[in-house]
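Severity: low
Component: inverse-folding endpoint
Summary: output formatting inconsistent between runs
Steps to reproduce: submit the following structure tokens with default settings.
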């Protein structure tokens, strides 16, 4: 979120800005946000070594590591229309059956009207496309091959 600040971002991402100036800008911004000392040290180290541009990647990688440590399994479900509460509860229950002991379901839902109906499920390393769009595409392919 700090790099979304246009002023800070322009200073930090400018390759011509001196390292000390970048460090000062980051330190001031982090102090204002009351970040933990560990976070401040990490950001200062990134600024010092000219690697602040990697901050979003580092945050993302750390999030994945922590998620795995907590036993969270990311599951993304894409539907044509938003799911109601009853459907969401039923879906969570069904998806929990794919988890092993100690794993926790971290469900993310998306809507994509282009899939027409059904759903696309990504859970862990598994991908299941049960969308109407994919069924239509498969049937169209079969019909074209038959002619």
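Observed output (run 2 of 3):
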């Amino acid at each position: 979120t700090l790099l979304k600040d246009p002023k800070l971002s322009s200073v930090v991402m400018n390759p011509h800005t001196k390292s000390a100036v970048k460090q000062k800008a980051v330190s001031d911004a982090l102090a204002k946000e009351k970040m933990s000392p560990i976070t401040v040290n990490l950001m200062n180290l990134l600024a010092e070594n000219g690697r602040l541009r990697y901050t979003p990647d580092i945050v993302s990688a750390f999030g994945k590591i922590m998620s795995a440590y907590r036993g969270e399994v990311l599951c993304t479900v894409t539907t044509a229309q938003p799911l109601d509460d009853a459907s969401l509860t039923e879906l969570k229950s069904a998806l929990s059956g794919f988890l092993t002991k100690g794993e926790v379901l971290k469900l993310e839902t998306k809507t994509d009207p282009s899939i027409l109906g059904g759903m696309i499920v990504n859970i862990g390393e598994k991908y299941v496309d049960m969308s109407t769009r994919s069924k239509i595409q498969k049937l169209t392919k079969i019909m074209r091959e038959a002619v």
